[in-house]
Amino acid sequence: MKTSSGRRRGAVAGRAGGARGPEPGARARLGVGAGAGARGNGKSSSAPRAAASARQARQSAPRARLMRPRDPRAPPGQARRGPFKSRPAHAATRKSRPRCPGSGRCAAAGWAKMPLPVQVFNLQGAVEPMQIDVDPQEDPQNAPDVNYVVENPTLDLEQYAASYSGLMRIERLQFIADHCPPLRVEALKMALSFVQRTFNVDMYEEIHRKLSEAARLRAPAVTAAPVPTGRSPDGGEGRWEAPAPPARGPLMARSSLRELQNAPDAIPESGVEPPPLDTAWVEATRKKALLKLEKLDTDLKNYKGNSIKESIRRGHDDLGDHYLDCGDLSNALKCYSRARDYCTSAKHVINMCLNVIKVSVYLQNWSHVLSYVSKAESTPEIAEQRGERDTQTQAILTKLKCAAGLAELAARKYKQAAKCFLLASFDHCDFPELLSPSNVAVYGGLCALATFDRQELQRNVISSSSFKLFLELEPQVRDIIFKFYESKYASCLKMLDEMKDNLLLDMYLAPHVRTLYTQIRNRALIQYFSPYVSADMRKMATAFNTTVAALEDELTQLILEGLINARIDSHSKILYARDVDQRSTTFEKSLLMGKEFQRRAKAMILRAAVLRNQIHVKSPPREGSQGELTPANSQSRMSTNM
Q1: Residue 231: which pLDDT band, with cuts at 50, 70 and 90?
Q2: CA distance 1 to 171
Q3: CA dist 555 to 378, 494, 626, Å?
Q4: Where is this chain compositionally biased, Polar residues type (predicted)?
């Protein structure tokens, strides 16, 4: 019969593919053989018999695969061909059987009649997407590494924490604890004591958990218990000998490490265990916070019933203060923002803006910060008093400039940030909820060094009577600025490296330290070479305390970026400035300026002619507007546009 012959041909083809070993086209030949068997019975048998014959053909042709030699302890009934064994019949059926696109016997039978396409396998592997060989750290817009560790800080935590208040002090201490292992326990203990003065129970539990982990990790290694051996080699009795090391292996190593970490007699390095979790304080504080929230909410409802705007505004502010004390920043921001509708004076608007700015800085919503800074500066009390400002107005303006400087710093607009910090007044800088006067000196000084030229540095920083007072708080930053201005770049860069560890512990400056240091060094290289026609790179490397090869790489990058107009003689190690013809450059600028004057003169003559002849252009009406534009309106609009 045709069915039997077709089945035999499929089985023979399948066995031939399995006997030849692990060839790439084995699966394709298997599919062709099965398809041949199915085509052979398509004319003389019913659909169930065709499906059964195709299934038998696939079972009789096991999938060829390279495997280990057959185990002599394997059952004797297991199939074996040559030096390699094949899978059992049921495994080959399950793995190598193509999936039927339909469902049910009819669909399987109909699919069995169709010829199976020859499968072509890509032996070269999948084509990988193109990858650009660029170091991600070279991009200044990349997010910095947040997992760095500072090992050698020179920071006085008590003095540092005394410069801040509220949530900012706790967040800065937590940031120091996350990135400085030597100060971790001390910073967390101070943060734990400060957070107990608030209603922020969740933060208290989080800080206590971190403190317990830090104390356990700082515990000294627990030695194993000694075992008596009776007599020592020198004959003495009562000596003790350490036990033999455990057997090697990953399981034993992990279990030993786990036992050391969970040892109950581990004592912290400081000798004092972390304080236990004060559950009584937690429950009492939660109840107090809930009662105060209910009281403030009831008072606000009563104020709204009386329709007194001043009382409603104060109610929203009190509710926002309570949410901020509890650590609920989102609800605090909502309450402060709702007070805007009930402000009756410019002073109330400024107070509302300062509250929103403070919470937005905590949330690091910098677009909100800049938006409300501009709103506060546009109030009549701030905008109209440009000449003479009283003490209160100057204090408000200093707070706004400091907040704007933080936002510009976070946006990597360092020159704008420097200008904002330079406008702060030392006598009125009292904003411990956000930053201290020392922060203003450091932020403003580093941003100015990275972006200002020599004239701007002299005029806005060194000669500034107000910013000099800020620099007195940070003598190291002051010396760096003066060394940079005096072109003593080696000592300047060395002092910058000395204070780098402390800068990395500042939560707002740490993401920008690497970028600012790079820009300061590049600006120093540019200023060093600017007065010379040629410079010896060996002397230049000595001045910058680096090697000639590293200096050549830096100069190459600056030339490619267009910051230095020069060429490098790599053989002689000399940097040559490009010879620019000043005469031709002046002529080109003069021609461009003349063309611009001609264009403006023609435009003015055309506008005068249009107005003199009363030429009107009627535009079609806009969607949603009624009627067309009148000639008078068209003339007025045209005159304003011209």
Answers
A1: very low
A2: 87
A3: 46, 20, 65
A4: 627-642
Query: Cα separation of 137 and 145, whole Å?
Result: 9
* Distance between CA atoms of residues 397 and 350, nearest Å: 10
- DSSP code string of 395-435: HHHHHHHHHHHHHHHHTT-HHHHHHHHHT--GGG---TTT-
Q: Distance (Å, rounded) from C-alpha 355 to C-alpha 372?
A: 10
pLDDT of residue 610: 92
User: Do residues 170 and 194 lie in contact, with contact meaning Cβ atoms separated by under 8 Å?
Assistant: yes
Coil/strand/helix, residue 231: strand
525 pLDDT above the threshold of 50: yes
Interatomic CA distance for residues 172 and 112, integer angstroms: 71
Dihedral angle sign, alpha carbons of residues 149, 150, 156, 161:
negative
How far apart are the two ends of the chain, measured CA to CA in Å? 96
Do 207 and 191 touch, CB atoms closer than 8 A?
Answer: yes
Concatenating the DSSP letter of every residue in 435-464 gives --HHHHHHHHHHHHHHH--HHHIIIIIIT-
Torsion of Cα atoms, 93 then 99 then 104 then 106, to 10°: -100
**Tokens linked to 159:** 């003095």
pLDDT digits (tens, 9 = 90+) for 314-324: 999 999 999 99
How many Å separate Cα 100 from the centre of its chain?
48
DSSP-based three-state secondary structure for 100: coil
Here the contacts of 537-546 (C-beta below 8 Å, separation 24 or greater) are: 537/568, 537/573, 537/574, 537/575, 538/573, 540/575, 542/490, 543/489, 543/490, 544/489, 544/490, 544/493, 545/490, 545/493, 545/494
CB 19 within 8 A of CB 32: no
Provide the Cα torsion 600, 602, 607, 612; round to 10°. 140
200 close to 327: Cβ distance less than 8 angstroms: yes
Nearest to 150 by CA among 179, 186, 183: 179
| Token couple for 624 | 């949603």
d(CA 225, CA 240): 10
Q: Residue 27: left (phi > 0), alpha (psi -120 to 50), or beta?
A: alpha
* CB-based contact 63:30 (threshold 8 Å): yes
Q: What is the pTM of this model?
A: 0.63
Taking every pair of Cα atoms in the chain, the longest distance, rounded to a whole number of angstroms, is 125
Contacts of 204 (CB under 8 A, 6+ apart): 192, 195, 196, 281, 282
Measured from the Cβ of residue 314, the count of other Cβ atoms closer than 10 Å reads 17
Q: pLDDT per residue over 6-53, tens digit each?
A: 444 444 444 444 444 444 444 434 344 434 333 444 444 455 566 666
Q: String of b and e for 358-370 (b: at least 16 CB within 10 Å)? A: bbbbbeebbebbb
